[in-house]
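Thought: the user wants the 3D structure for the chain below. I'll pass the sequence to the structure tool as-is, report back what it returns, then summarize two notable features.
Action: structure_tool
Action Input:
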Amino acid sequence: MIPLKDTIPSRSMPYVNIFIIILNFGLFFYELSLGRVELARLLYTYGLIPRRFFYLSQEVSSSFISQFLPLFTSMFLHGGWFHILGNMLFLWIFGDNVEDAMGHFKYFIFYILCGVASSFFHLYLNPLSSVPAVGASGAISGVMGAYFLLFPTSRIITLVPFLFFFTLVEIPAFFFLGLWFIFQLFSGAFSLLLRGIPEGGIAWWAHVGGFISGMALRFIFVRKRYRRYRRYFSDYW
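Observation:
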């Protein structure tokens, strides 16, 4: 299933959401400009590597920046076109309404905190991994978690494969995001059973952690005027 848009219009211009998307694409194009060796060095320096993180935590001489900087930088790097296009599509669909409910500055802080929280989930559930984890999906999962609680009955216009064709279907956000979360949770649990296999691929637990963090932080960051949103969007709910 490929989400295309939701049915809830944003009341204000989502400046922060647009800025984050532009920043991610800008850094991705910078990655494309690098040679193979330089790109590998960039990913291993600024990507989140659990084994290195815990190794540095035991080193007296390690610097705070070298250990914790990847918690932030990793969420702005991507591993390929499908990776960044998929992430930015989800951010574009769900981010504007969440920013609307929180306000611009709070939304930016919320986004960063969700990304950091998702990184910690990945770290502690994959402590031996030496593969650099990159991508905005953890932070975006937090945005989706907040959307899940804020707009549960909004509808997501989704492209669904049917035999050899595709059809457009309006799916309630509660069902779409709930199904997405369950898939991440079961995939993460299954990955724990494969510890004997070299670790890499999708950071399932970062998605799970981000989603849960977004739901929890939503109660802190949503403005008190949120009830007005329910009245404003009553025609769409």
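Final Answer: Structure generated. The chain has one domain: 2-193+200-232. The two ends are 22 Å apart (CA to CA).
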